[in-house]
Amino acid sequence: MLESKNKLFKTFPKNFWTVIIMEFFERGSYYGVMSVLSVYLVLSVNEGGLGFSKESVGVIKSTITPLLYFLPILSGAIADRFGYRKTLIFAFIVMSAGYFLTSLATSYALVFVSLLFMVTGAGFFKPIISGTIARSTDESNSTIGFGIYYWTINLGAFIFPLILVPILKEISWSYIFIMASIGTGWLLILNLFVYKEPEKPKSKKSIYEVLKGAVLVLKDFRFVLMIVIYSGFWILYFQMFDTVLWYLKEHVDVSPINSLINSLLALFMSNPNWAFDAEHVTVINAGTIILLQLLISSIVKNKKALPTMITGIGLGTIGMSILALSAHIYVFILGIIIFSVGEMTAHPKFISYVGLIAPEDKKALYLGYSFLYGVLGSGIGGILGANLYVHFVDKLNQPSTLWLIFSLIGVCTMIGLFLFNKFLAPKTK
Length: 429
Fold this sequence. Notes:
The protein has 19 helices and no strands. It is mainly alpha-helical.
C-alpha cells in the first residue's frame, strides 16, 4: 500500500510541487494576516493598533473579501490569454506590495488601498494554482492531487497563525504584514526560475466571453436561487474573521486554557507564557479540517448532496449558537470546532452538487460562478456583523443576542435549502 502511494506521488511533475509550495506560503501569509486583521484595525493606538471603528472595518472587509472571490473569474481568462507565469509575476508583485504598504499605513484610506492591492494580487493568484494542478494531473492522480492542494491550504492556515503570528505581534503588529510580504514576495523568484508555463488550453476565452458566460449562468433562476440561499451560511462563516475575534478579545475569559497549556508546557520548559488569542480561532478551524476532513468525507460520500449540506449548515448553526451559552473559553472552543465540522460537511457537497446539476457542456462555467456564495456571504457578512456587534455587544452588552441572530440566519438558510430541495431542485443521479 505504502509503495503504491509512493509511486502515485512520483507521478506528479515538478510544476505540481512548485505550485503546492506557492499555495502553502500564499495561504499561510493570507490567513496569518486575516487571523488578526480585524483585531489590529480596531485595537487602540496605545495598544499598537490603528483605532478604527468596527463599522469602518466592516466596510473594508465587505469590499476586499468579495473581490477575492470575484476576481478569479476574470483573472483566469487573463491568465489563459497572456500566460500563467506573467500573471503570477503581476500577482506576487501586487500582493507583496499590498502587504508591505499595509505594514506602513496608519490612515484609513491608505490601509484600505493597501489591502485592495493585496486582495487583487491574491485574486489573480488563485486560479493559476488550480489551473496548473489541473494541467499537471490526469484521471489517475487528479483526486489525490487536489486533495494535497486542499490540505496545503489548511496547513498554511494552521502553521502561520499558530507559530509566526504570536511571535511577530509581540515585536510589532506591522511585522505580521512584513512577514506576509516576504512570504509572498519570495515566490516571485520561484516563479521566475522554477515554475514552467503549462501547455495553453485549446480555447482561450476573452473577457467579453467570460462576461457573456456570466449572463448565461445568471439566467438560470434555480442555480442563482440556490447560491443566494447557500450564501446565508457564509455570512456566518465570515464572522470567524471579524465579530468572533472581537468577542474573544473583549468578552471571553481565556485564563483556564492558558493555565492548562502552560502547565503542560512546564513539563518541557521553564516559565512558559503561552496565551490563547485571536489567531487561534483560525488555527482551530484549520486544525479541525486537517484532522477530520477525510473522516467526514468518507461518512457523507454516498449521501445526497442537499440533505448533507443542510446537515452541515445545521452543525455550523449549532456551533454559532453555542457561543450564546457562555463566555467560557472551553464553550467558545467547542463552538468553533462544531462550526468547522459543519463547514467541512456542507462545502465539499456544495461543490459536488454544482457539478451534478450543471449542464453537461457548461460544468466548468457553472463551477466557476459558484464562487458567488463567497461574494454574497462576505459582502453582507462584514457590514452586517460589524453593525450588529456595535449595537448588541458594545452598546447593549448582549453578546448572546448577536449569536442568536446569526443562528437564525443559519436556520433560515436550512429552511431555504429544504424548500429548494423539495420544490425546485433539479433531479440528479
